[in-house]
What does this fold into?
Amino acid sequence: MKPPLCVICYKEFLDSDEGGLVYFKKRNSDERWEKMMSEEDLIGHPPYADWFCEKHYTAAKELQNLPLNEAVKILNERFPKE
Ligand SMILES: [Zn+2]
It folds into this structure.
């Protein structure tokens, strides 16, 4: 598993924090990843899911019908880095 870091602001998660993992629409490559992982009997961090802190979690949830890369692009535009 990836260490829990918000993919938008890179804030590290603490036990007390809200927010969490958001699963996005699977791309073809994600379907292939899932098939490969189940065939090889492996467990890993899904490429179509990522962590969001409490500040970005709700916005991320609203975009979960998009593939991860598109959603992150939109969120990075909506929440510019300082
Ligand atoms: Zn964040």
Q: What stands out?
A: The radius of gyration is 13 Å. The mean pLDDT is 92. The CA atoms of residues 43 and 78 lie 33 Å apart. Helices lie at 28-40, 54-62, 68-78.
